[in-house]
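Minutes, project huddle
Topic: does the predicted pose make sense with manganese (II) ion bound?
PN asked that the exact inputs be recorded in the minutes so nobody has to dig through chat later. Recorded below.
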Amino acid sequence: MQIEKYKIDEFNNSVLKEHKRRFDFAAEGVNGLDGILKKLVDFQIAIPSWALGTGGTRFGRFSGGGEPRTLEEKIEDVGLLHSLNKSGGAISLHIPWDIPQDAKAIKALAAQHGLRFDAVNSNTFQDQPDQKLSYKFGSLQHVDKATRKQAVDHNIEVIKHGIELGSDSITVWLSDGSCFPGQLNFRKAFQRTLESLQEIYAALPDNFKMFVEYKAFEPNFYSMTVGDWGQSLLYASKLGPKAYTLVDLGHHLPNANIEQIVALLLSEGKLGGFHFNDSKYGDDDLTVGSINPYQLFLIFNELVEGMDARSMQHATDLGWMIDASHNVKDPLEDLLQSIEAIKIAYAQALLVDTKALQAAQDASDVAKAQEILQQAYRTDVRPLVAEARLRAGAALQPLQLYRQLKVRENLIKERGQKTVATGL
Ligand code: RM4
Ligand code: MN
Ligand code: MN
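Predicted holo structure (tokens), as shared on screen:
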């Protein structure tokens, strides 16, 4: 299924008057309005190929129907999203869940939908049916050299797929760690992991980045070999200038100050990318902004401030990706909501009066500093985000149009009720 442009225009015309009224009100008094709208138009968020199907927990999975059965259909789904909001112009592949058989054809298909390939992801946290050695006790950290080599080779293979698709980064997330005290020598596990990462790093082309993702716990419940930003930063620093830390919002222990982590990684020049999601308890992979939108805003505030301080391009100098699981919602609806939440937080961060904030900070005026931040956070920026969409040729209300066009019903008709997408 594809959404023709005239359908988007027709829909926009039907809600234009109301939008104009709201936009005029919201735009009044916004400094540098056109610059802000341009930044919103340019900001694209990559969609993971494994998030287009229904997610599940270890207890069960309840499929919603019409899920993409092939990589081609996944690209079609991301294309649908992108035509609705013009903000999801990239796709991130997880290998071997999604192996491009014919890279040229896949690249051409993605380009037809206006999509490029974002970071490629390796998978050494599961055993594949044809795999020789098991990752039960880790991959890059494994005590057995041959198992480590198998995992290193897989990562190099993933980089090759990335090169063919025009991607310029690989994300390495390891489930390596231990479940019980005494199981692992931490120091040696770190050293082995570093050496394995060094071999992968050596295979990176010049323009390629390596993102080292950390996670506090799960599937290992006693220790994780890349368990927090400190460990990730250690690896990334030892590896060299092409290695960076990747922050997945759900990968922290409860109450961690993620905005401070982001600020420090940025100032060290070692923040590489983001996995957006939200959580209440752990790595819940809930819709971005659904639980703690204020935290999301505070993170974006640090991102904007920190990137501006280093003269970085917001849209392109970091990798922006959603990494969520849609267990009880239509994945495409969930992704539309996620992108909207990200854009709202970004727009609010762009509204922060940075000069006034700095003056308040320099004067240790705590109440004023809080007022300034919350002034931006409490501004309803939805009409600005909608206007940016309008200017980009997208729908003023993507989710409403998605429902009006009965996209899911159409996909079920095309693909069937009982389809399963690859992924977790
Ligand atoms: C992990 C982590 C990785 C993702 C896998 C599927 O928890 O977030 O980024 O690739 O899940
Ligand atoms: Mn992640
Ligand atoms: Mn995760």
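Observations noted during the meeting:
- The chain has a mean pLDDT of 97.
- The CA atoms of residues 390 and 396 lie 6 Å apart.
No decisions taken; revisit at the next huddle.
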